[in-house]
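SAMPLE LOG
Freezer: B-3
Tube label: C17
Construct: single chain, 258 aa
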Amino acid sequence: MFQPVDHQKTADAAVEQIENLILKGVLRSGDRLPSERDLAEQMKVSRPVLRDALKTLEDRSLIEARRGGGTFVCDLIGPIFSEAIIELIARHPSAINDYFEFRRGIEGQAAAQAAMRAAPSDIERLEGIVRQMHSAHEAEDVTEEALLDVDLHHAVGEAAHNVVMLHTLRSCYRLLENGVFYNRGRLYHHPTARSELLQQHSAIANAICEADPAGARRASEEHIDYVRGMLSEAEQLDQRERLAELRRVKPIKTSARS
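STRUCTURE (predicted):
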C-alpha cells in the first residue's frame, strides 16, 4: 500500500501519499497504520521525517495516536445529519421516501459509473461478495446476508471511482447500518424477500462485471424500488395488525336488558 517517497519532498511527500490513500478510500475510518518502524521502512524515510509527517496528519485531524494502541485513521465520515434532524425524521416517517429517492438517484449513477470504471480488483471483490451472499442464503444466515448487503453497496460505490460519491455513499450507508431509516433485518425476515434481494444484488454485480452501465443503473434502481415497496407493504400490514389487535381486546358491551 505504501510506496517509497520522493526524498526531495520528504515529510511533505509522505503526508501527500497518506492523504491520497484516505481521500481515495483505500485507508478507511478506523484503519490502523503500520508501526512507525514498518511504515518508515516501506516509505523509505527516516523515522524523524515520518514523525513530522504523522504530526502534520494528526494536526489536520486525519489520523490519531492512541496511547498504547498505535495510530489510526480518524472517523472521517461523521453523521450525514445532526442528531436533531435524525430524531425529526424518526418522528415523521414520510421522510423515508425522500431517503429512497436520494438513494435511487445516487446509487443508480454509482452502479453505471462502476460498470464503466471498475478495475479488475473491483470485479473480483464484487464477485466474491456475491458468492458469500449465495452461501449465506443457502445457510439461511439472515444476519450475514444483511451485513453482506451493505458490503456490496460499499463495493459498488468504491468501484465507481469518484471520491465525492464514495464518501457521500459511505455516510449514507452508515445510516443504513445504524437502522436510522429502517431495520434491514426485518426486511430479510420477509418470506420471499431473501430470494428477491439475492437476485437483485447479483443482477447489479453482474451488470457491472459485464461493463453494462445501462443494465447496472436499471438493476440498482429496480432494487431500491423493490425495497421501498416491501417496506411500505410491511408498514401497512403493521397498521392493519394494530387495528385488528385493538378490535380484539376492545371490551364487548352487553345489552342493558341482559
